[in-house]
Write a structure and sequence with these properties.
Low-confidence stretches: 412-421, 589-629, 631-652
Oligomer: single chain
Largest sheet: none
Helix content: 55-70%
Strand content: under 5%
CATH topology of one domain: Serine Threonine Protein Phosphatase 5, Tetratricopeptide repeat
Number of helices: 33
Structural class: mainly alpha
Distance between the termini: 131 Å
Mean pLDDT: 80
CATH class of one domain: Mainly Alpha
Length: 652
């Protein structure tokens, strides 16, 4: 027909539809674009928009739909799909509601499924609490989408039950078809099992999650989006461990078409994990490249700059990392708090605790938080800077006072009596108590008194605070302490009805009183008389040495070191050092010079050892070396004879 009439509208329409049915979307779109004069937007708007949608030209598809003069039902259906892909969930929800309200055909179940998918996406990505649409969860698709919405709200246990129900419904519906095999059912269940594993991972059951993830990968599902998400989740479980497995899994996230199957936040999370994996595998340049790319895409996002700072810290460039974080905090004040917390952590790691405190105190929105106050006081105490710690308490208490005052000023005049006395908040009172305890601990009694008086004023029945106040005043103003002590309750009113015997004999008591026998009258009176006398502790006898002899007087110099005692003569030299005749016959030894009489005669006398008699001159009674008998000669002879016997037929 087209050979006869190339501009025949019906023939061109038929050709476009046939190409779409065969999946040749590019060729179909080419036919539409080459015959724009004949195939106007009114005639073929849906086919053109559908081709653009299937070719992932989503923005072009939206323009084509919006330019159509008449919005048919099928264009509205496609419009809803396009809005979902563009992540315009509010507009998408309105479009599907309008479709369900104004159409009645066999596709109503599919529209409800799409509507529940939009609600799940809002809950997951926009953190919107979904409204109850009143959809009956009769199919496994509806059950699955409902579970995804519950995951977005953090209701993990309920979501797991919904997924289990979805699995059951899926098996029932697919098993009714005789052509569907068990492998087909498992492939269909893969996405449900993937969400189950994700819930397990969120619950901290990482081993179970990892096992289920690997089972899904073994099935080799055709959905590249599902594989990419599972691979990414396995990488997050591995963290800095098992990096070789993580590098294998990264390839699944790079599959063709993944970018069209996942949301922007999912793709962003995958890119973040790629950068972290590059850091863990010491690919510094790759890590910097990926994090810089992510920062250019999302300039206000925290993770890219934190990854860059972490990489610099791994390279021992802490100063550069802190500078990078400071620049980001200056450029993006909205995210400055989290960045400054990281900077403080780096300063603490370097040992600069005082500088870390300065950074923390610059975070205005966190200055009054109990956690921040506790951290600062602990750090200043570690640095023994008590004045700064007290200043932190003072500033925080002043902030709560101003906050309380602003609330009082905000009261209307018709609220009778609301401004007469405004009790302090529990956090404020707790802060004052902690400040008082800290000051008492560090000897700042006068400063602690004002805080304790404020606490007692708020609760005059608080005996513990009153006791602390009296204790503090007793060191500063004893008279005031006496006056305040009158407010203490009497001992009778403070006595507790406690069975002391039962308490001491209880299972958890650290001290159990031994049951004593009945006492006689005399001994009872004796005990009563000695009740007020303190028992004297018996001195333990000192231990005596094993060889102690009471008849022998101990050495008076026994407390002195051996070298300082008068009878110490030094260490005894070994016999072998003084032996002569070592070695072969005729050889000389190192000690031969000491036996030479000519040398000994001229040498000066040696100094006496402590406690020894006066030294005899070296020249008296000296025997010439030839007449000296070696001390070890007989022993060496015996050894030689023994060697001969052992050797058998020896001889000279």
């Amino acid at each position: 027909v087209l050979q006869i009439s190339k501009d025949d509208v019906t023939a061109l329409q038929c050709k476009v539809v046939c190409l779409i049915q065969n999946g040749n979307f590019k060729e179909a779109l080419s036919v539409i674009n080459t015959h724009t004069k004949v195939l106007t937007s009114d005639i073929i708007a849906f086919e053109k928009a559908y081709c653009e949608y299937r070719l992932n030209r989503i923005e072009n598809a939206l323009k084509t739909i919006q330019s159509a003069s008449q919005q048919t039902d099928k264009l509205k259906e496609l419009y809803g799909q396009v809005l979902y892909r563009l992540e315009r969930y509010d507009d998408c929800l309105a479009a599907y509601r309008d479709l369900i309200r104004n159409s009645q055909d066999e596709y109503e179940e599919e529209r409800k499924t799409n509507l529940s998918a939009v609600v799940a996406a809002q809950s997951t990505w926009d953190r919107v609490v979904p409204e109850d649409l009143g959809l009956r969860e009769a199919t496994y698709e509806l059950c699955y989408n409902s579970a995804c919405a519950l995951i977005g709200q953090g209701k993990l246990n309920e979501a797991m039950k919904k997924l289990q129900k979805a699995e059951e419904l899926c098996r029932q519906s697919l098993s009714e078809d005789s052509d569907v095999t068990e492998e087909d059912i498992e492939a269909e269940l893969a996405i449900i099992h993937g969400q189950m594993a994700y819930i397990m991972q969120l619950q901290g059951r990482t081993e179970d999650a990892l096992q289920l993830y690997n089972q899904i990968i073994k099935l080799k599902p055709t959905d590249v989006g599902l594989l990419a998400v599972i691979a990414n989740n396995i990488i997050t479980i591995n963290k800095d461990q098992n990096v070789f497995d993580s590098k294998k899994k990264v390839k699944l996230t790079n599959a063709e078409g993944v970018e069209h199957k996942l949301s922007k936040k999912q793709l962003q999370a995958i890119e973040f994990n790629k950068a972290l994996l590059a850091m863990y595998t010491n690919q510094a340049d790759q890590c910097r490249k990926l994090s810089a790319s992510l920062q250019s895409q999302s300039p206000e996002h925290l993770l890219p700059v934190l990854i860059q700072a972490a990489q610099l810290c791994r390279e021992k460039q802490h100063a550069k990392a802190i500078g990078l974080l400071q620049d980001f905090a200056d450029q993006h004040p909205a995210n400055a708090a989290e960045i400054k917390l990281t900077m403080a952590q780096l300063k603490i790691a370097q040992g600069s605790v005082t500088k870390a405190c300065i950074i923390l105190r610059s975070i205005e929105e966190l200055q009054h938080k109990p956690g921040m106050i506790s951290a600062l006081v602990t750090m200043y105490s570690h640095e023994e800077d008590i004045d700064s710690a007290i200043e932190v308490f003072t500033q925080a208490i002043q902030w709560y006072q101003q906050f309380q005052a602003s609330r009082i000023r905000g009261c209307s005049a018709t609220n009778h009596g609301c401004c007469v006395f405004q009790p302090k908040s529990p956090v404020h009172l707790s802060l004052i108590r902690e400040a008082a305890n800290f000051k008492l601990k560090h000897g700042r009694k006068k400063e602690a008194i004002s805080d304790l008086e404020e606490l007692w004023k708020q609760n005059p029945k608080d005996v513990h605070t009153l006791a602390q106040l009296i204790s503090a005043y007793s060191l500063v103003d004893p008279e005031k302490a006496k006056v305040l002590s009158k407010h203490l309750p009497s001992s009778d009113t403070m006595s507790l009805k406690v069975d002391v015997d039962a308490l001491e004999n209880s299972h958890g008591a650290t001290y159990v009183r031994k049951k004593a026998g009945k006492l006689t009258g005399d001994s009872q009176q004796k005990e009563q008389g000695q009740g007020d006398v303190k028992k004297k502790k018996k001195k333990k006898k000192g231990k005596l040495p094993k060889n102690y002899d009471p008849k022998v007087t101990p050495d008076p110099e026994r407390w002195l070191p051996m070298r300082e005692r008068s009878y110490y003569r030094g260490r005894k030299k070994g016999k072998k050092k003084d032996q002569v005749g070592k070695g072969t016959q005729g050889s000389t030894t190192a000690g031969s010079s000491e036996l030479d009489a000519s040398k000994t005669a001229s040498s000066p006398p040696t100094s006496p050892r402590p406690g020894s008699a006066a030294a005899v001159s070296a020249t008296s009674n000296v025997i010439p070396p030839r007449h000296q008998k070696p001390a070890g000669a007989p022993a060496t002879k015996k050894k030689q004879q023994q060697k001969k016997k052992k050797g058998g037929k020896g001889g000279w």
